[in-house]
User: What shape does this take?
Amino acid sequence: MISEETLASLRTLAVTAEHSFRGSLDYAVTAPERLDPLIRELLWNWNVTSLPEAEPRRGQFLHSLRSAYAAAQKNPDWLADIERAIERRFAAPKRSEQGDLVELDFGQVPGRLEVRGRRGIVIARSPHLEADQWRTPDLVRALAVAAEAHPNAQRIRLRVKTEHGTYPLDWVYEYDRRTDAMLVSFPARPYEMYLSPALGLTPRRGLTFEEYLRGERSLAVSRLRAVGRNPASQR
Assistant: This one.
């Protein structure tokens, strides 16, 4: 008989960042109703009722368990769980502050997940993306909320992951109150940066990036001015 203690222990051992979506426990599937059938089947196949104690059998069992966990994420029910985890993470960005800078990390942009061959699980489509970039109205809305929540921050940096081609991109959007401009970059191309014109944040007049919120102007990099980055300044 498989005890509840064994199931609870193996749930913890099954779930690792390495084997979770985007290599992050933020998107791990941890629900017992997903994990327990997988664990029970593996125990049955190994003809054991608990984790083997002796090596190398213990290590081999854990490898099989984590491989099964990784493979199971491609099932529709598991994909739906990951989608919900992405949405929760995106709705509650991780905040950090340093000096006059506040940074909000939104993680992966939510969307519909699909399994595509060697690429594995990818964001197939998302209402938050346009031309593989964060939609300007959504981006600026997030910036406006951050600016209101952190009135003393001179710089507001937003981070987000999107899907592009065969790999995800990490985008960095940094707004400077002093210039009222946004600097856009992505580490995949460390020497490319794009600068926006003044966005129009003037709270005393009740204006908060209105043209961008209405979709009349864009922060897509194709619409911004390319500027050089001094490598020495990034050290």
